[in-house]
Amino acid sequence: MKKILFAFFISYSALAQMQPFTLQEVRITEGPFKNAQDVDMQYILELEPDRLLAPYLIDAGFPTKQDRYGNWESIGLDGHIAGHYLSALAMLYASTDEPELKSRLDYMLSELERCQNKNGNGYVGGIPQGKIFWERIHKGDIDGSGFGLNNTWVPLYNIHKLFAGLYDAYYYTGSEQAKNILVKLGDWFVELIAPLSDEQIQSILRTEHGGIAESFADLYTLTGKDIYLQTAKKLTHKNFFEPLLNKEDKLTGMHANTQIPKVIGYEKVAELTDNKDWNEAVKLFWHNIVDTRSVAFGGNSVAEHFNPVDDFSSMVKSNQGPESCNSYNMLRLTKELYFNNNDVSYLDFYERTLYNHILSTQHPEKGGFVYFTPIRPNHYRVYSQPSTSMWCCVGSGLENHTKYGELIYSHNENDVFMNLFIPSTLNWEEKGIQLTQNTKFPYEDQSEIVLNLKKKKAFAINIRQPKWAGYFEVLVNGKVQNIQAKSSSYATISRTWKSGDKILVRFKTSTRLENLPDDSNWVAYVNGPIVLAAKTSTEDLDGLFADDSRMGHAAHGKMIPLDEAYALVGDKDSYLSKAKEIGNLRFRLDSLELQPFFEVHDARYQMYFQTYSPQEYIEKQELLKQQEMEALALEAITIDKVSCGEQQVEVGHNYEGEKSNSGYDEGKFWRNTRAYISYQLSNNNLEGKFLDITVLDELKLDNVEITVNNKPAEIISAENKTIKIGVTDKEVVKVKITSTNERPTPRFYELRIIKE
Ligand SMILES: [Zn+2]
Question: Which domain, by its residues, includes 689?
């Protein structure tokens, strides 16, 4: 495959000299990343294109060839995986040249084109009742909140996946067909929103919309047509972006993965329009996430939302730690910033997150992708299966392991930059430069590069000296070089190279402790860029390979009380030396064995440890035990619950509503309404006796009507911010809360069915 057109790189080359190599130019040769790529290929090939395409055929009015998939592919987000699938096929084909991937990609594209032609107006999509839905939007009939737009589950997020997939199919494989479908789809969208006022567009943008702005920035780069750039700008979500432009941090409580892809779009627009203020706001966002909201392995958020920067306790307690999609998008943003700023320091975060989060989110033998990575001690993670699991993190997971070659190397006009220590080959055909990198890193502290040149050639090889490298030297053909590098920079070796020249990079990693960003007493062991964790048990791994249930992506097995977790007790300077190295990146920690977290699968694990002086230990453990007992006791009598305003839980409980606002205050999510909201809860085996509905505000019910299964609720009591309702005889509990006078109801916090 020839190198794809330079036109794509306008945004990189206009301001900065650094450019990416294409995936075709780099091959991963061995090691855990190569394994991950192979395992992902199996998973990709197990998915059935006709099942992924079914929602598109249904919407276009064609008979389907196979049934659509279940799970998220048939409860509103129909068609989202097909978009990711296009991206994954295109990138993995570019990375491997496997012909089956290309023929699948071509098949997907021709079916999508068939649907687009049938629809006749440029539209193609899998969103249920798409035609009716978009017609309402076109007419300005818009009611949006966090994830429901006119009671459809994140439709712009969904269609953005298709935009991105088509773009990737063109970018990575040069498919003209993909470009044609994409441009028509883009033109349809431009027409769709043409009659809408800025205010109406802003109300659409209240609902999660993925990277729709990025897609229009990409369309502009692709075609040079100004209307696309104008559309990208119009799709800037002001309520979110203006505080960043004003250097304010309003992120706490926001749905995390809703925000990150927006910012990727704003960065692209900033580059295209040379807007320094926007560049600064994007950098501010990146630093905010990386420096104050990310844990050791690079992930962020709890139950999909940003927690307060000074309090990570909710994340420590939750079985829903950082979501994989967030890191997928943070790496995409980091890559943009690295090239746009020519700044190698961005790669420290990229490398950290690549090894510890991204690589770790795929089962290395059986395949399957992880959604949440809890930091709760002694909890575990669950994996998707090709036939049952259609989550967002499956979509991004399909892509994650197809493009490990994207940043191992980069280049400017004449010189090579080596960024990551991953065994691989580079073939820069245009310059007649080939090289092979041999390394077992992170299991050894060195990497060797062997050059293969058509003829002698003068150029520079720049080798990244990572932030974590305590000592760093470069030898050329056995001779130590006098290099002037420092941490987070490049060591440059300029000379006339000949075929067979060998470069040996030697460095030193050491182990250190890293606190959570809130500076509480939780620490993780980190060696070089590698986060360590201990397997603690292989018992009670409920739902390890997920079924098709709505919340199958969360590890819902029993939680081990926090006070039973291993803690570091003693003087501050004793914690690090407690871990004794036993080789191969393994460390003995009393009865535990630490190992790279990316190796930890099929097990409960501990990554974070609490530290105590002996006196603190006695005091704090008692308190922790008490709190744990109360929290776990409430969970034990809970049959079902909904936290109002939290996306997955609400969708899982058939949320519907109109004129509803949701938010996050006083450390809690909430939702109110000026019309109605409703949820459906399950009271399995009639075990539950009461439904408790809690509010954040004063409990004023003068404009509130509550029905259960369409009948007035039997309210037992309403005090202390809790409404207690009897549900003894109902297996399905459909709760509807209505405002009787179109004024806002109190802010509802939680609905919980309990046994006693
Ligand atoms: Zn996800």
Answer: 639-754
CA of 715 to the centre of ligand 1 (A): 38
Q: Looking at the structure, tell me whether residues 613 and 643 fall in a common domain.
A: no
Q: For residue 690, give the DSSP letter.
A: E
pLDDT grade, residue 10 (50/70/90)? Answer: very low
- pTM comes to 0.90
For the domain that residue 673 is a member of, what is the CATH number?
A: 2.60.120.260
pLDDT of residue 723: 93
Average pLDDT over the chain, rounded to whole? 94
Report CA(390)–ligand 1 centroid distance (Å).
10
CA 214 to chain centroid: 16
Question: 736 lies in a domain?
Answer: yes
Q: Which residues contact 633 (CB under 8 A, 6 or more apart)?
A: none
Q: Distance between CA atoms of 204 and 201, rounded to whole angstroms?
A: 5
Q: How far is the CA of 397 from the centre of ligand 1 (A)?
A: 8
Find the 19 Cα to ligand 1 centroid distance in Å.
Answer: 29
Total structural domains within the chain: 2
Q: State the distance from the centre of ligand 1 to the C-alpha of 396, rounded, in angstroms.
A: 7
Give pLDDT tens digits for 318-362.
999 999 999 999 999 999 999 999 999 999 999 999 999 999 999
Regarding whether 672 and 610 lie in a shared domain, the answer is no
Tell me whether residue 680 is in a domain: yes
Q: Tell me the three state secondary structure of residue 389.
A: coil
Compute, in angstroms, the gap from residue 388 CA to the centroid of ligand 1: 16
> Does residue 732 lie in a domain region?
yes
Span from the CA of 145 to the centroid of ligand 1 (angstroms): 19
pLDDT-derived band of residue 278, with 50, 70 and 90 as boundaries?
A: very high
Residue 561's CB is within 10 A of a number of other CB atoms, namely 16
Residue 6's pLDDT is 39
The CA 294 to ligand 1 mean position distance, Å, reads 16
